[in-house]
Amino acid sequence: MSEVSLKQLRCFVAVYTERSFTKAAKLLGMKQSPVSQAIAALERQLDQRLFERGHREVTPTAAANALYPEALELRRRAESLPQLIAESRTGAVRPRLRLGAASSTFPSIVAVALNATHDHSPVVSDGASAKLAQAVENGDIDVCLIREFSSYRNEERVAFRERLVVAVPEHHSLGGRDELSPEEIVLEPVVTFSRDIAPIAFDLVASVFLQAGSQMHVSAHVSTEQAILGLVGAGAGITLVPQSVSLETWKGVRFIPLMGAHPTYPLTVRTAPGDPLRLLDPITNALSEWAREHGISG
User: How far apart are CA 59 and CA 163, in angstroms?
Assistant: First the structure.
């Protein structure tokens, strides 16, 4: 039997996660034909059918389900080789950790996760929660800190849930208040995420206004908490952010507790299938403890 190649594993993981040869090829930046050929060659080498080809999508077989976590781990190890060699020159070889995190987790929450995995060599990236979750499935990162939760995954755990707080411009007429009710902010322009970028964040913020009997009046849609707070500081409107964000100082912004707020905003840790680096427990436990220490966990 000829050797299985890294290209074949990349194609396999893409087809497995996308359930489509066409979508997998687009994800990989390849034409569909080479992807199909790579999968066919892999099936011949393993003497196993990996996918049932349907009209609209492909369905993984039991063999594919068994191969998927192993393929992710083999990819991770192969792609870690350049860093491993570079670190060997300094004598400080540590396993690579590819961490993805939603924008609201910078810097405090990410710092806790990195401290909990200090024996690894981290490579950190940011992004929308949905894209980070997909990156874990595709084997592009090892673990992510995201603002959504899927109850069907074994390699996923909610570290804590937190309340929303109101962020207003420093010199806003509401800036001197110790607490604000939803009814007091319903007429204010709101800077927030686009729903397609952060659906849970958008829906949680919108629900505050709906429960107060009003629709949300959006003044700007942006893609990160940092951009949102920058616009708030510039006077473009107010916003609602998770409590952990208010632990940092933001120029021109005042954070005020929201009256009656409940801990509904999740911070979720998700790892690669099988959690091969054993990251889920140490990161989740460290984040849960940090949240309790800072009065965030509900």
Answer: 40
Measured CA to CA, the distance from residue 285 to residue 266 in angstroms comes to 15
39 within 8 A of 11, measured Cβ to Cβ: yes
For 94-159+265-293, which CATH class?
alpha beta
> For 283, how many CA atoms within 13 A lie in the half-sphere containing its CB?
32
Poorest-pLDDT segment among 86-90, 113-117, 135-139, 168-172: 86-90
Fold agreement (94-159+265-293, 164-257): yes
- For residue range 151-187, list pLDDT tens digits in order: 778 899 999 999 999 999 999 999 999 999 999 999 9
The two three-digit tokens of residue 234, written as one number:
């510039």
Q: Which CATH architecture has domain 6-79?
A: Orthogonal Bundle (1.10)
- The token pair at 165 is 């707080």
Domain 164-257 fold: D-Maltodextrin-Binding Protein; domain 2 (3.40.190)
pLDDT tens-digit profile of 45-83?
Answer: 898 999 998 877 889 999 988 888 888 878 877 777 776
CA geometry: angle at 268 spanning 267 and 269, to 5°? 130
